[in-house]
Amino acid sequence: MNGKKGKIWEENVIIETITRLMVPFIQIYALYVMVGTEGAGGGFQGGVVFAASIVLFTVTFGISKGRKRLPESWNAALNSLGLYLYAGVGLLCIVLSLGAAQYLNYAALPLSQIMSPAHTRALMISDVVEVGIGLTVMSIFASIFFDLAWKGEGKKNKDKNKGDKEVQE
Amino acid sequence: MEQLIPIPYRPLLAILCPAIGSIFIVLFGKRPNIRESWTMLASIAQFLIVFSMVPIVIGGNGEPIKYTLFTAFPSVDFGFSVDAFGLIFAITSSFLWILVSSYSIGYMRSLHEHAQTRYYFCFCWAIFGAVGVALSGNLFTMFVFYEILTVSTYPLVAHDQTPEALFAGRKYLAYLLTAGGFFLAAVVITYYFTGTTDFVTGGIPNLASEASRTALMALFALFLLGFMKAAWMPFHSWLPTAMVAPTPVSALLHAVAVVKAGVFGIVRVVCYIYGVDLMHGLGLGLVLACLATFTIIVANLFALAQDNLKRRLAYSTINQLSLIIFGVALLSPEGIEGAMMHIPFHGFMKITLFMCAGAIIVVSGKKNISEMAGIGKEMPVTMIAFTIGALGMCALPPTAGYITHHFFVHGCEEAGGTMSFFPYVLLIAAILDVMYFFPIIYTAFFAKSEGSSGSKINEAPLFMLVPIAITATVSIIFFFYPDLFHISELVETAVSSLGGVHP
Amino acid sequence: MILSVVEQFPVLVIVVSLLSAFTILIAGWLNKKSCWVISFATILVQLVMAVFILHHVLTVGTIHYWLGGWSPPWGIEYVVDALNAYILVIVLSLALICVTYSKRSIAHELPQKIVSFYTLYQLLVTGLCGVTVTGDIFNMYVFIEIFSLSAYALIASRGKIALKASFTYLVLGSIGACFFLLGIGFLYSVTGSLNMHDLSLILPPLYENKVVQAAFVFFVVGLSIKMALFPLHTWLPDAHSFAPSEISAMLSGIIIEVSTYALIRVSFSVYTVAFIKLLPIFDFLCWVAAFGIIIGSVLAIAQYNLKRMLAYSSVSQMGYIMLAVGLSTSTHSALWGGLTPALMHILNHALMKGCLFLVAGAFIYKAELWNITDFQGLGRKMPYTCAAFMLAAISMIGVPPSVGFVSKVYIILACLESGKFIFVAVMLLSSLLNLVYFWRVIETMYMKRGEGEERSHSHSSSSKIDEIPLSMLIPVLTLAGLCIIMGVVWLTEIPLPILDQVNALFGLGRYAIP
Amino acid sequence: MILIDEPLMYAFVAFWIIWVAVRRKEPGRWLIKFCEGPLMTFARFIDFYVMRMAGFFVWVSKNPMVALRIKEKEVRLKVEKPVITPKKAEEYERGLEEVRIRYTKELPRLSLGASILLILLFFLVYLAMYLLTVH
Q1: Do B305 and D39 touch (CB under 8 A)?
Q2: What is the average per-residue pLDDT within C135-152?
Q3: Cβ separation of C280 and D64 shorter than 8 Å?
């Protein structure tokens, strides 16, 4: 990385300050996109916006700091968590209805004391599922960004495929 | 026996003997004595079971013992149907297996051969295939065993693992598996035409009506190609090449099991698929007879030119196999009778010859006839046995060969027409036989050996000598008493129901 | 509608697998060894479910599962009939065997990438199951992409030249997927529906429509690429030979077969026999397949690298399957009519090729042996592995009573019935060619002595046995044993009623309307 | 029939034995010579060519593209050799050598572009079939 270890960015007070200011707002906006509106949709976009905030942070403060905020393990965990939310709610429908309803049949969730089946459906789709999608998208985008930016790791994979050469010949 | 094993299970059990034996052989691979006693045990057990079916089949008046494992296609069972003809082949191979097992022990140990476990293992499976072919009740089952036989003999042919042996193995497989392809096609087409592949005495009834004349001709050609194991010319060259195998293999497989499976198949197809009448109607008998005659003569001419004893015997085998085909091609009861009888007779005689050749190799390492001057004085028993076998090949009394030759000549007469010309062919063949077998005997007994190795008697180990003596004796007994092992009774039972004399 | 537990299984097979894929990702951070356990357990559970599904389908009838309770054609519907259930069981069985095998082999080959390997593997299984159970054509496309993407990544996982192979596959696979997607688009533009059953109801009056016909062409071409039908097989040899062996086994044994399944599904469930009989497309496919059979075998002879050789052999075997599919509309026998030979060979090929690739992997695992010429003396060193190879190779050649033999007989009977004698000759020739290239390997393994290995005169001095670990050996031996056992089972006609149900579904074989 | 057949056989056997006893040599040397000489040569000739043909097929299948090119060049060299200058012939031979070297090295492998071209061709064939066959 340009000979110097670690730092290729310039410490710039203006950028840092603005980033510090912007990131929370971007993230709140992302949440709004995800769940703030009524009806389905927005999970993906919200996730992307959220990832953008992380990207912005990393660009400003350097990759190691960025990685520290969102460690790889966390990334994997969030990634899976999103999917768990999405698929888990679907499974809940089966489990809570004791197998009577289909997968993703949110109307079957036993929330009838609180709201009507139609409302349950809407709530699940627009909030829970969207959050799940958002989380996964966010973590995937972040990890793509880190993978592209993080150069040093690639060397670790030693390929011991001697056969390849022979085959190539 | 009757109480011990219920009759219908006997064919299955007979087949299973070598299969089970092979497992124990592998398990005891590290302890030669136990391993080899398993071979002996399996072979004896198999022979006893096979033999126990003889009275039932003869008593049952041609009614076969049937055992079906499962049905593979509608009206195509995977199962056995033991009739008189099948029993002849089964008895021959299972009895000779006992002798060859003993002979193998002597041979393999004397030569300190490698990979003996593999050898015995594959031998078992080869016998499994051969007896399976003999007892199978339809073409489909037969094909299955036929292929097993091919594959399991490959390691035996290539046993030496020298480049030459590997080449022979490859050639062997290339010929025989190609043949298998043709055979499969023939089986499937037969099934497609008639809806059955069962062996029916006198031929499958609706075969003639379902297929056109040309189709039947083509189908027969496919069958013939499929039975390349019978080594008819010009598709014979795998057999002499395969002689690089250890001698017991040449003896049992290339004198009895493998090649006889091919001939057996041809007889089956002629008598039990096409039927004598249809064959005659199509004029295929004459075609087959011409093919056989060609092979008989040319194989003999080739045999004349060989100096390597085993190769000469191989060409003699080709000749004798075609003699069997010739017998069937006559399409007359006596001809077919001769052909069926020649399967065990030739088996016993040729195995004697091969085992003698092996004994010579073990004792003196000599493979070529020109080196064998005076060997008769060193190994009198072996060479006397060889002489008996050779006489049999030349169809001279007092050996089994005379009997069948007699049948063939009668068969020609019976068939009449063009066929009555063929005894002269047999005569020429016999003369040629004399021309290449007698010199061997002459060289062995009367020619003077160059080195004065003295005339000290130096015989092969008893493990080898005893089987040789037994087969040679049996070859002579057949002359006086063809009903040994009920062979002639079985043949009569088989032929009596075939019918069809065509003047 | 009240669902029985088994009727929930089609979706659970996929969801469980998907969840497990991401669980592996997390668990891998905590303990790398847990990845294999989770993957194995999941696939085992899936297999059990698949078996239940198969049983349910056979005894009760087709399962229709409406996701989220939305009724088709608006909602996505999973439909499991005899065909899917059968394929599903095959997919999961081989997946289970491969995952068992991978435990040691991946730890040895890709120690750095265990977590990602199992995650991707589980995703691959998810995709394959998804394609199999879905009754919605767009959903099928999505799952095709899921398994393809995982396959690209898995092939690339060994790095270096595998990357190139993966890239070729990626490009060609994407083109194939594009064709498939275009086909879907065409159909949607005409019918406004994506549900297969719904489409099959709407389409018949539109069969003369050029768009509908073009859509079929798109489907055929797209899936032909995916299933490596000659001459669109060019991605396959590299991909097969450079992937980790268990992935090669999956690629050859399952992935291309599932693509074939997709083609069968599209041809007979979306379109119908009536449409196919309208056009000579299946005749054309027969010829293409016949050429593929011969040329694939010939090219296999040319290879020295075992895995490459097996890959070309797969091209030839796909030809068998496609030939059988091509003949399916013109055969009416109760036994070999319709799709029976094709479906039979799908299972058989999975068994044989799975076994062969796993054995090839075993040689690489043990001694980095890639080339056939290096196999000298292996028969003594690795007796069980070589015996397995031998059994599978014998099956490929078609020696009875192996599975290959049964396929061969059934396909030949089908050829005969449809009067195409030339294909009988092709089948026979190809089994000879198979003999040429497989026997070469067997000969080297058993009959040629290794360097420095003296001709041992007695049995005691046989060289040391150096076998692969048990967790790899058991899968290999299982597959090899199945090659023979299934052959006998096929001959006993026990599993044929399943295939008969498939024919009944599509109106093929003896259910065909003359 | 037997009347003729069998006595003739015994007669021959007797003749053979007497001949050997008297002449100390086997009768019918000429036949054996014929078999060992011309007949075996002929048989070997046939066998050799059959094996060579089989070998040729295997050789071609190992690298069909290059093998065909080698054959083509060989034939061309044979045909044109009498008419062209020695220098040119040498050039030809060099070309042939080059291809021969490539035979062992280069295995047929299609590039990505060629594969895509194949796909398109394949697709066109299908499409053409449709548009031509329907109505």
Answers
A1: yes
A2: 92
A3: no
Q: Which residues of B touch C333 (CB under 8 A)?
A: none
* Confidence at C316, pLDDT banded by 50, 70, 90: very high
Are 3 or more Cβ–Cβ pairs between C and D shorter than 8 Å? yes
Contact C162 A106 (CB under 8 A): no
Residues B2-18: pLDDT tens digits?
A: 566 777 888 888 888 99
Is D45 within the bounds of a domain?
yes
Using CB atoms, which chains have 3+ pairs under 8 A with C? A, B, D
Chain CA centroid to CA D117, Å: 35
In this structure, the dihedral spanned by the alpha carbons of residues B44, B46, B49 and B54, taken in order and rounded to 10 degrees, is -100
Do residue B74 and residue C335 have CB atoms under 8 angstroms apart? Answer: yes
Contacts of C66 in chain A (CB under 8 A): 102
Closest residue in B to D50 (Cα–Cα):
B237
Q: How far is C398 from chain B (nearest CA, A)?
A: 9
Q: Work out the minimum CA distance from A157 to partner chain C, whole angstroms.
A: 7
The 10s digit of each residue's pLDDT in C382-430 is 888 999 999 999 999 888 888 999 999 899 889 988 888 889 889 988 9
The answer to whether the beta carbons of residues B321 and B262 sit under 8 Å apart is: yes
The pLDDT of B16-45, averaged and rounded, is 88
CA distance B436 to chain D (A): 9
Lookup result for tokens 């399944």: C261
Q: Residue B291, CB half-sphere, CA atoms under 13 Å: how many?
A: 23
Shortest alpha-carbon distance between residue D83 and chain C (Å): 37
Cβ–Cβ gap B423/D35 under 8 Å: no
Helices (H), B227-332: 238-241, 247-252, 258-268, 276-282, 284-304, 309-329
Chain C residues whose CB is inside 8 A of the A165 CB are 161
Chain A environment of C23 (Cβ under 8 Å): 80
CA atoms within a 13 Å half-sphere pointing along the CA-CB vector of B463: 17
- Domain residue spans in chain C? 280-450+465-514
Q: Flag whether pLDDT at C42 surpasses 70.
A: yes
List chain C residues with CB under 8 Å of A140.
Answer: none
In whole angstroms, give the CA distance from residue C185 to residue C179.
Answer: 10
**Residues of the domain holding B324:** 7-496
Burial C280-294 (b: 16+ CB within 10 A, else e): ebbbbbbbbbbebbb
For residue B76, what is the enclosing H or E element? strand B76-82
CB D134 to CB C213 under 8 A?
yes
Determine the angle formed by the axes of helices D112-133 and C281-301, rounding to 10 degrees: 150
Residue A161 has pLDDT above 80, yes or no: no
Which of the four pLDDT bands, split at 50, 70 and 90, describes residue D108?
low
The number of distinct structural domains making up chain B is 1
First-residue to last-residue Cα distance in chain B: 45
Residue in C closest to D122 by C-alpha: C221
Structure-token match 């703030």, residue found: A36
Q: Give the residue numbers spanning the domain of D31.
A: 1-62
Structurally, how many domains does chain D consist of? 1
User: Directed axis angle between helix C256-265 and helix C340-367, to 10°?
Assistant: 160
> Does an interface of 3+ CB pairs under 8 Å exist between A and B?
no
What 3-state class would DSSP assign to B114? coil
Amino acid, single-letter form, for residue B277:
D
Find residue C65's DSSP bridge partners.
Answer: C78
Kindly determine whether residue C492 and residue B185, on different chains, have CB atoms separated by under 8 Å.
no
Return d(Cα B102, Cα B117) in angstroms, integer. 15
Chain centre to alpha carbon of residue B122:
18
Task: Report the 10 Å Cβ neighbour count for D78.
Answer: 9
- List pLDDT tens digits, range B329-384: 988 888 888 999 999 999 999 999 999 999 988 888 888 888 888 888 888 889 99
Asked if residue A154 has pLDDT above 50, the reply is no
